[in-house]
Amino acid sequence: MSSPFEELAGLDRLVHDPARLSILTALASCRSADFVFLQRLTALKMGNLSSHLSKLEEAGLVKSEKRFLHKRPNTLLQLTSKGRSTIERHWRQLEQLRESADNWSPE
Amino acid sequence: MQNQRFIRFLVASYPYLQGLTAVPLGLALMTAAIWANSLHRRAEPLELLLISVLVAGLLLVSWLISRQYSRTYGRTQLTRHDHRFELISSLLGGALALGAFWLDISSELPFSAVGLVFVLAILGTYVKVTWSVRGKHLLHYPVVAVTLLLVSVLPLLGLPLWWESLGFRSQLVSVVAAAGFLIVVLGLWSHILLIRMLPPIAET
Questions:
Q1: For A31, which of B12, B71, B79 is closest by C-beta distance?
Q2: Across the interface, do A40 and B78 touch by the CB < 8 Å criterion?
C-alpha cells in the first residue's frame, strides 16, 4: 500500500496547479463566471490567466463562450460535466490525503 | 493564491458583496418613509408623481451601479439550484412583506411586523451564504439584523411611542426609515469587504 506522500505525488498536475485549482474551485461554486471575475479572484495577469484557461479548455474541463455584453467583449467560462466531476474528485482526494497524512506513522 | 473555502465563500456571496447597489434602494425606502411621514392630508397626484419619479430614479441608479460592478469586478451566474432558491425566497419574502404591511396598518401591535420581515430577509441571506462555506466575512449581516430587530420590538422593551420623540407619526414609517438607513449601512459595509477581497488588477 502506498504512503500518503506517494499518493500526493500522483495527483493530477493539470488540476493541482494553484492557479488552475482556484479557477476550477471558483467555477464549481457557480454556474458560470466571466474572465474579469476570475482575473480579480486569482490576481493573475491577463496573459497568464488566458494560458491557464487554454490548458483547462484543451483538457475538456472548461468551456468558454465569447460574446459582446453592452457593446464590450466578454468571455464567459463554465465547467464541463467532466470538469465538475474532476474538481470534486480532486478535492475528495486532497481531503483523504490530509486524513491519511495525519494518521500516518513510519512503521 | 486563495484557499478553497475563501474562494467558495467569495463566489457564493459575490452578489451580496456588490453593496453599492443596495444604497439607492435603502435611500428610496428612507425617502418614501420620510415623505409619507410629512403628509398631513391625502397626497396630491403631482406629489405622488414626483415621489414615484424620485424612487424610480434611485432604482435606475442601482441598476447602473450593478452594471459598473460587472465591468470592474466581473460577473458570475448563480447555479440553477441557487437561482431557484433565490426566486422562491423572493416570492415568499414579497408575500410576507405584504402580509406584514397589512398587519402593521390594520392593528396596533407592540412590534413592527414589517421590521421583522426585513430582519428575516437579512438573516436568511446570511444563513444561505454562510451555510455551506462557513465564511466569517458577512458578520455585518447579523449585526444589522439584530439592530433592526431591536428597533422593531422597542415598544415590547418598554419604549412605547418611541418614534414620536424622533418626529415620526407611526411605528411603520419609522421602522421603514430605519430599515432604509440600515440597508445603506449594510451596502457600504459589503462594498468595503468586496474591495478588500478582490484587489485591483495590476495589468489589463
A1: B79
A2: no
Q: Which chain A residues are within 8 Å of B79, Cβ to Cβ?
A: 29-31
**Binary contact (B79, A22; C-beta < 8 A):** no
Q: Is B86 on the interface with A (CB under 8 A)?
A: no
| Cβ atoms of A35 and B197 closer than 8 Å | no
Any A CB within 8 A of B71 CB: yes
Taking an 8 Å cut-off on Cβ atoms, the answer to whether A33 and B7 are in contact is no
In which domain, by residue range, is B158 found? Answer: 4-197
- Residue A65 CA to residue A71 CA, distance in Å, equals 15
User: What is the tally of structural domains in chain B?
Assistant: 1
Query: Is residue B80 assigned to a domain?
Result: yes
β-bridge partners, A63: A78
Mutate one of A41, A45, A68 to test the B interface: name it (highest B CB count within 10 A). Answer: A41
Residue B202 lies in a domain: no
pLDDT (tens digit, 9 = 90+) per residue, B126-153? 888 777 666 566 788 999 999 999 999 9
Q: Does a structural domain hold residue B204?
A: no
- Reported ipTM: 0.80
Q: Give a yes or no: residue B13 inside a domain.
A: yes
Q: Which domains does chain A have, with CATH numbers?
A: 4-103 (1.10.10.10)
Calpha distance B124→B34 (Å, rounded): 27
Query: How far, in Å, CA of A44 to CA of B178, rounded?
Result: 42
